[in-house]
Amino acid sequence: MTGTPKIELRDVAKAFGPKVVLNGIDLDVGVGESVVIIGGSGTGKSVMLKSILGLLTPDRGSIKVDGEEVVGMGTADRERVNHKFGMLFQGAALFDSLPVWENVSFGLLAEKRCDRVEAKQIAIDKLAQVGMNAAVADLTPAELSGGMQKRVGLARAIASDPEIIFFDEPTTGLDPIMADVINDLIVKVTREVGATALSITHDMASARKIANRIAMLYDGKIIWQGAVDEIDNSGNEFVEQFINGRAEGPIQMAVRA
Amino acid sequence: MNPVQAIGRVFLKFLATTGRLLTFMMLGVSHAVRPPFYPRIIVRQMIDIGYYSLPVVGLTALFAGMVLALQSYTGFSRFSAEGAIANVVVLSITRELGPVLAGLMVAGRIGASLAAEIGTMRVTEQIDALTTLSTNPMKYLVAPRLIAGLLMFPPLVLVADIVGVFGGYLVAVYKLGFNPANYIQNTWDFLTAADVNSGLVKAAVFGFIVTLMGCYHGYNSRGGAQGVGIATTNAVVSACILILCFDYMLTEMFFTKH
User: Fold this and answer.
1) Predicted local distance difference test score (pLDDT) of residue A257
2) What is the residue-averaged pLDDT of chain B?
3) What is the CATH code for A1-84+163-170+195-247?
4) Potential cystine with A206: which of A98, A171, A173, A245 (Cβ 3.0-4.6 Å)?
5) Residues of B in Cβ contact (< 8 Å) with A166
6) pTM for the whole thing?
């Protein structure tokens, strides 16, 4: 990895009241790279993602996008930086008051990059890219299955040709076959758009498929990171336990709250 | 626990909530007056708040006017002051019952639906999604609804005024045997522009309160279906209380002679 990383996190920390969620995260994501963060539920993966997006403000530390500090940025600058982002939400988060095509081209219309006729055409093209036909464009999100909603969410995330795409548990709640379809699409579209990808998941099959590099988050810190083919020989007992899905090991689940 | 401590804690919580609400309000208003505007959403909200509330508000006002005529007849006939019925009906409706009853009914209808809609958008991450799609949720969701509430309540209350007075007329003429021409003349003689105007100013304030409460509680809802339920209840209850509270303050402002 050379040059300025696309995303750079240094010593990022966030606590909610007495509960420390992030405790000094250091992470670099290179240009065009696909990094997957793995970790158990409640280890702060989503909080980290939301901090980069500016939906949450970290208590301390620095987050840089293209070498530009985004923590404490003003609203106008924040919106400019957010133009670089696309995001696929865990539950797809489609706007249920709008038809599918308006969902897909929402960002384009918001930035006034095209008129509504053009926007619909672009939406249909993007839907085709995720393997959906034009007939879907006029349906409402409520008429779609979970897997189809995910695909529409993906089409929406890539619609404005983002430089960075975030995937929040892209396969959660899908059957294994649909999960694999989504994984393939993620690999395909990020390559087509030429985007940098940062994903969070606890689905190892998904992580192996979409990652160049994997980092593991535990107890508010990145405890291991390496190339995807090194994960089976990480030599880290936390990683070993996680990827093999064992209840016994150094990671103690808080079974009782 | 120490009782003083308990009172202090409640008081501090009250101050914190008031502060959060006022900050939210200022932010909403500041987005409502600055471009970009979302005319499509404003129009859709105006239709929802104004047009679709007409049946509810109309029926409420009609029966309020009718019962008012009937009750004041019972009272006034003892003093042979039946002639004052038209006066009582038109003043009560335009000054108080029109705006307040319309406000309370629409608080139930619109306040609840706004809180549930925005609350669901919050818990399903749709509000976060707006931010990632170059759209400010305060500007896209909150500002158009505040504008629509402020604009649509006065015409809605004007309709309520007319229907309410008509309700009083129906009872007075067809049940109590008043002369129609005299009743209308009496109504018209007692009515001043200030009565109607004060009611319409109240209406605009109530419209703002209802939409603000719906948006605020929805926007800050937490934790799934239960959170949305709590937000909906809070939106309606707080809007109703604030309507009655502001009604008193505005009346004091308009009609107390200094």
Assistant:
1) 44
2) 91
3) 3.40.50.300
4) A171
5) 132
6) 0.87
